[in-house]
Protein 1
Amino acid sequence: MSETSTAAASPPHATLGHRSPILRVIGIAISAWLLLSVVAAAWFGLTTPQTGTAALVQGLTLAEVLFAVALILLGSIVEGFGWGLSLGTRWPYTRNIVLLMLRGDPEAAHRMLATTVGLIALALAVLNPVQSSFVGLVLVLVTALFGMGTLYVLAGRAPAIVHGTHGLLAYLVFLDYLVALRLPGVSFPIYLEATGALHAVLLALFLGGMVTGQRGFGKPIEAFVRPRRPAQWIFVLHGLAALLVIGTLGWMEPLYPVAFTLALLQAGVGFFVFHAVNLKPRHPGALVVLHQSMVLLITSAIVLQWHW
Ligand code: HEM
């Protein structure tokens, strides 16, 4: 069922996204992921050698990492299936947001999950007042504000950099808690500065978000030989950053073999995303979700140093 209609009672600029069987399947997969996240976090907290508050902190940190993954994927569903303006530019909530979420509106689900991630970040800052908790909490709050900004980017009233920054901040939230889990006690800013392999990836994903923001809601990038429009120039920069990712990870291949292979695959996915965006600019679809899943895998493979 194709639904790109404007609801009669909706605020200005509110536009429903596209519903399809694949969206339903992805929705079920994300719900299952969230359920498994809760089970995994509870199991982790209960089986860790630590006890009491320390065990609770461990469980909550794992939940925060897994929820951040789901939140980023929900963001790509919102983008890929054209739900970005389903609630218009009203932020953060509408009165019926829970009902909308239960009816399968990914934008409503994105905001409710963001609220949950914010509450867990707050709980961690209270229960475990260390640098990673405070950095995480501040990042979640600033990401949320930029999330509001993305609505204005989609409505054509804010620059694309706001969209790129929102994506970058979302990954910093994910990485902050992942590093806290993997390397407890290590300062996140210092880790970030020292981990060169992440730099090009962060640049590429920032520019990817800017491509999305610059092309505008429902507009193609358009195939080109010489770039002319701003969206095409940013797309070229995004491609160059992707080459930088492949170059750095290739250079550090013995340390990051899985990340390097994933980056090579991502380049292929990227070309398909480009075609999907030009073919169906309003809802390029599941390829956008795949493109984003690959970024999550690449960043995880770097931090967790996955090897074959
Ligand atoms: C490892 C390298 C890459 C990373 C980390 C990356 C990451 C991203 C991210 C995070 C986005 C934003 C998605 C969103 O807003 O939901 C994006 C968008 C995009 N990427 Fe990439 N990307 C990479 C490589 C490529 C390559 C090589 C191409 C094409 C040849 C490509 C094509 C695109 C296109 C066309 C968009 C815009 C999608 C839209 O406007 O809906 N990407 N990328």
Protein 2
Amino acid sequence: MAEQSNFDIVVVGAGPAGLGFARAMQGSGQQIAIVEKLSESVLANPPEDGRDIALTHTSEALMRDYGMWARLDEGRIGTIRDAKVLNGTSAFALNFDARKAGADYLGRIVQNHEIRRTAYEVIKDDPHVSLLCEAEVATVATDAGGARVGLADGRRLHGNLLIAADSRFSGVRRKMGLAADSLDFGRVVIVCEMTHELPHEDTAFECFHYDQTLAILPMAGNVSSVVVTLPADRAEQVMAMSDAGFAADVAARFEGRLGAMHLSSPRHPYPLVAVLARRFVGHRFALVGDAAVGMHPVTAHGYNLGLSGASLLAAEIREALERGGDAGDARALKRYEAAHRRTVLPLYHGTNALVRLFTDDRPPARLLRGAALRLGTVVKPVHNRILNKLTEIEGHVRS
Ligand SMILES: Cc1cc2nc3c(=O)[nH]c(=O)nc-3n(C[C@H](O)[C@H](O)[C@H](O)COP(=O)(O)OP(=O)(O)OC[C@H]3O[C@@H](n4cnc5c(N)ncnc54)[C@H](O)[C@@H]3O)c2cc1C
């Protein structure tokens, strides 16, 4: 039988959340193993995947703290100063202006593969982190003696805590018997980047047309991230359109606001399935990132929640270590679960309700969303609460 390797923490998944957790633990002295099925050369140079990630002020601050921001090309980072929500052909728009929250901008936009690259770079030379790449998890178990992970190649790992950071379809979560509820929207999101004739003026648009949703997010220069959400049975047809045909269709749906538009990246389709684990922790076991909550991307919270959750879990573990406990300390895990669920639940259910309202074409829903947009604009406290959440600067919105 292969010899057992001992660590303090075993993380499965070297995505943005798993790597973010390892970075948040830096300096704690804990020995961390990260098991990842991809090769290390892919982690060092992740392929472009079409996802442009809208980041809150909190995520930007964490990425600066972790040394990730300094490794990004500033010239390629987008800035959202203003966001507008448009409803069908109605001229009525819900408007979020960063200046009203006393902030210079609502958020920043960075390509997902750049987030992955920088997350890898800040842990790769850490002597306390062992990356076990091209490895498959075969068995997992935890008990009073610790957490045990068996790899498909026969290697055996032991730690005080096991963390699943292996995506919304987490195999480790399932193997550990933690149930999750999933919601298949029957829709597909197609993402890409496009150049355009006219400047976007750092404004993000979410346009709810009756058959499909179009989000246009400002990248650096005359480039935007384009997110088209449509019923799954139409996605293949849209993916089969020529680049020029697709670009002309997006420009027309956006009513020429950005002038002529051209594709500047491949199109990537993602099926839309939201997932919420019923518990975020078990005995010597915790979920982080999408393994805990896989959000619908319309409100751009997935990575933001993954990063803040990973940093929260790391802070609780550090406190437990100071109290003389170990990384699997039950009280620390419970506190992480309680605090993270308080943040996650309203966002998860709120996002799903918003998606249902804005993708329902029946007349009552059309009426209701018109009313919801008006309510958001006219009723200041509602509007201000949304704006504060975007900038995460509490109490700063001027009425
Ligand atoms: C189109 C789109 C747009 C988005 N836009 C935004 C946005 O604007 N803002 C935002 O905050 N979020 C956004 N998100 C969400 C964000 O991309 C995710 O929340 C984030 O990538 C999740 O990170 P993760 O590390 O939890 O999981 P993942 O990125 O899925 O990484 C999981 C890792 O685990 C590895 N793995 C899986 N199974 C195993 C196994 N059995 N053994 C070993 N390794 C394994 C995988 O190879 C991978 O490296 C968007 C998502 C999509 C699809």
Protein 3
Amino acid sequence: MKNFVVSARKYRPLEFDAVVGQSHITHTLEHAIDNNQLAQALLFCGPRGVGKTTCARILARKINEKYGDTDEHDFAFNIFELDAASNNSVEDIRNLIEQVRYAPQVGKYKVYIIDEVHMLSNAAFNAFLKTLEEPPAHAIFILATTEKQKIIPTILSRCQIYDFKRIEIDDIKDQLKKIAEEEGIQYEEDAIYIIAQKADGGLRDALSIFDRLVTFTQKNLTVAAVSENLSVLDYDYYFKITDLSLKNDIPGLLLIFHDIVKKGFDPQLFISGLGSHFRDLMVAQNPQTIALLEVGVNTKQKYLQQAQSCSSRMLIDAIEICHQADINFRNSKSPKLSIEIALMQLASLTVGESNIIKKKNSG
Ligand SMILES: Nc1ncnc2c1ncn2[C@@H]1O[C@H](COP(=O)(O)OP(=O)(O)O)[C@@H](O)[C@H]1O
Ligand SMILES: [Mg+2]
């Protein structure tokens, strides 16, 4: 049996082209190499799992390919990586500084990647500062950190700074789809979308959620299975609740809520999720705002469709009701009741005569 390699490792890009969502950085770096404009100290900042280490390694290799021997084996000796998360003492940095002094045996540059550089101790930072101030001509430093604010200004001012971005949901989705296809994993597009959403901009996180769910679902990523595992309420519930509200079906709503709670879903997440659902219907009503809808393609169709059956007046009231219930939930002695009241109000929105909201507003 083949050993299982986690996707985050298996799919670490080896070329700038393959790096997703950071083209503002990869283009600049490629350009800098082509035009010999590379700084001697670079700082890669940004959230975790968005490609900092990956780009540092690619850049280090490119530098060696350009200025070095063509023998891959030789220039591997010209790339040094220090993980400051586990090697952060003054001695660790002194050892490194000691090495920096010697010119490379082959090639022109030695590249030092110092990852999680904010973890260096103060003393280590200070020791490093001198070297960074006047690095030997053959040394290039690539520092990476998730916590730019922890880097002292003297270091910041000596580095060319590259800010890595969170990766957009659509880019994450595309990458996951590519991997799913390569690995022969069945998926519903919208299930992949939910994973991408959950990853909150980090591709490494997306890949580890993906791996976990591939195992959990035995290589069949359905919306239902993914939602359940990630404790995301299946969109279908919200669509159903909207339909029931339009039909003024109070019993139906109370039953569906009961069902959701029984499944162990947090009622407060439910009511705020429902509020977002109405908000999404609202943006789906207007061609100008459809772009604000962050869902997969199939789900998007459902939104466009359901938005047709709601008036914007009803949606505004519905958003307000959910918002209020969310607030009441926190303060109420019987929080579940505050949600049930909200559901009853939702069911009454289109009733006309007995419209609770209208009565309340006029009385
Ligand atoms: N921008 C990206 N493009 C493609 N894959 C990425 C990207 N960012 C992260 N990854 C995936 O996540 C893994 C970890 O990325 P890494 O570069 O170590 O993140 P960071 O150093 O920013 O925390 C990579 O091996 C790769 O599989
Ligand atoms: Mg890293």
Protein 4
Amino acid sequence: MYRGTFAVVDLDAIRENVAAIRARLAPTTRVLVTVKANGYGHGAVEVARAAVQGGASYLAVASVEEGIALREAGIQTPVLVLGASTYESAMAAAKFQLDVTLTEDCLDWPDVPLSPPIKGHLKIDTGMTRLGVRTNEECVRLAQWILARSDVECQGAFTHLACADAETLHHAEQQIRRFQEMLGILSNVGLHPKLVHAANSAAALRRLDWQFDMVRIGISAYGYAPSDAFVPSVSLKPALNLYSFVTRVHTIQTGESVGYGATFTAPRVTKVATVPVGYADGYPRRLSNQSFVWVKGQRVPVIGNVCMDQLMIDVTDVDEVSTGDCVTLYGHRAPSDWTRQNLSHYGIGTDEALEWLRTTFRESAREEPVLSLDELANRLGTISYELMCALSPRVPRIYVK
Ligand SMILES: Cc1ncc(COP(=O)(O)O)c(C=O)c1O
């Protein structure tokens, strides 16, 4: 916190988002929340706990290592590893009671039983073309392999939709039809997975008839819509907020430049504020001269190239900006009394300071966010997912719950 750049992660928002999605589903449908990539940048362990409080009864990660981190933090909820499994990764997963993804590659596993045995989810590629069995023959072979192995329990069968967030659901409908065909094949060979699942956030928000036994939600749990092609059926609350404190205010003359490469030249006498956040924190350099931040109740532009650790903003039109004022990079407006000086008064890193930040944040969080990750993502031609995941480990996260 000494640097003055920090993220606030609103765990109440995550809990409420999960609960709102849960409430629309059949009571028997399970909710899996994906906490891969450090919980989409928010912090996997904290998100996992909030998600479970909101009604999630499964979690997913990308790798066995991510799953082990959850177990080591004491999280007992079932965890599915979504990435491809090798025999070695399955051995490690079994030790930590993590479910694995079963694909045609498993057919090459040595004929030595895993101990302890493993729970697996058979992955069916119905059109994402990423992982899983694709042909009927592959599906039968994998199903027979599972049935023949005493060390592999078929906990689930799943597919992943490539275009559930698109304007039309034509592609997703085709995938679901193919999925149902493949489920029929599994049943014919005598394999009856306990949990059938296909829906990501977009599908869970749009098609209750695609919920099967479980939905796998990610982005919606973090409070963002998967795309702007449809309006989510529940109101989602963004959980991630990024703040920093101004470290310097300086006036430059017309014609003087700002930052590396001198990509901004002042068209007038300009008041420039320096903010200690940069691309190494996850604020992309491609936002140089392209985005806005919020300071003292006003939206102001980022000027010059975003540096690794700092960026500059034009505060000419903001009255009385000074060193220590709080800047909102994205999320809810920083409360008006958030200044570096007030934080120091409470004592950086103290419980008192954290409590003050949390309490005052809750008041701001009643309003709509002033700067959304969707806006920044649109400027960059990317998606909110990428910006969340980019938030660097060096940015301290303050958890509000
Ligand atoms: C296999 C799988 N299921 C579910 C999800 C969750 O998707 P979303 O974040 O769009 O809800 C992901 C995310 O990438 C995924 O890879």
